[in-house]
Design a protein that fits this description.
Oligomer: single chain
Shape: globular
CATH architecture of one domain: 3-Layer(aba) Sandwich
Number of strands: 12
Bound molecules: thymidine-5'-diphosphate
Helix content: 40-55%
Strand order of the largest sheet: 3-2-1-4-5-6-10
Number of helices: 12
CATH class of one domain: Alpha Beta
CATH superfamily of one domain: NAD(P)-binding Rossmann-like Domain
CATH topology of one domain: Rossmann fold
Amino acid sequence: MTILITGGAGFIGSAFVRLCRSATDSRIVILDALTYAGNLSTLETDLKDSRVKFFPGKIQDATVVEGIIAAEGVTHIVNFAAESHNDRAMLEAGSFIQTDVYGVYILLEACRKFKIERLLHVSTDEVYGSIDVGEFTESSPIEPNTPYSASKAGGELQIRAAVKAHGIPAVVTRGGNTYGPYHFPEKLIPFFISRLIDGKKVPVYGDGTQVREWIHCEDHAGGILHALQHGKVGESYNVGDQNERTNMEVVKILLEETGRDESHIKTIPDPRRGAHDKRYSMTTDKLEALGWKPKKPFEESLRDTVRWYKDNEDWWRPLVATDDYKRFIKAFYGPTLGEDL
Ligand code: TYD
């Protein structure tokens, strides 16, 4: 296999690169736009491996994508490239449509032109929308509520149609909320860890009773590799770990592990307004029937993640020092955090 891993310098993409290096003998070609959330420092060790090649560029750029496929003899594509932060999409969703919908279309067009054996598209459980009780299965309706999840749903629908219209050999995975090392400090867990390490307050939206289902990035990457190797064309597979926690429960573990008390919690009016999904939950029976199972225990692995951030300040400090990061934090949290920003 020669796998093109798009978005391979990002959080879950880089976990997948590490897994492919250790668990397969494939050649690995990485394409990453190196926007704020993709960093070469994440791939420092991987890029020393002679099986790994890196190209900067966007999946929306057909010339770049097709040039790499032709020159490198790509046989498989795994698409991690995406704009993925709900809060950024609350401010501006155009870049999400560009990457998450149009970018997917460009990859599908490349699959039509070249003999790609498999396209695995990494999606999210957020395409289902919110569920108060019970669990989503792969046949639950696609009912996204946020500008971000609507863009991911748009990408998936392009794939569904391309499988039917052009016979593209595509498989989709829908992952749960993911945590672990090398996560850009803007989503709940890494954002709060970085702030708590610095003794800052953490902004909990509303009452913090929203429920998320958490999976470690290594387990998420494992599920994706399993679906790539064993999944059926045209099918979707949930990749989750049934670790449901309220946001407040997660925050309390982070406080404990960083040695901070509850005075560091600041509840703020919900900036996602009516687009904030209350609960995500899904079954993973379909992928488990193909022989996959997640392995990492949640609480212990979350505590390990906090320790990783404490031990790897060299990785995340430069990221939170950029003008882009400071601009986003100020624009999004400035009105509610005020002097606690
Ligand atoms: P997030 O990590 O952004 O993932 P997603 O939106 O994909 O679920 O958010 C997880 C939960 O944490 C979600 O309910 C929103 C909440 N949240 C906060 O309360 N405060 C924050 O600053 C952030 C980033 C998220």
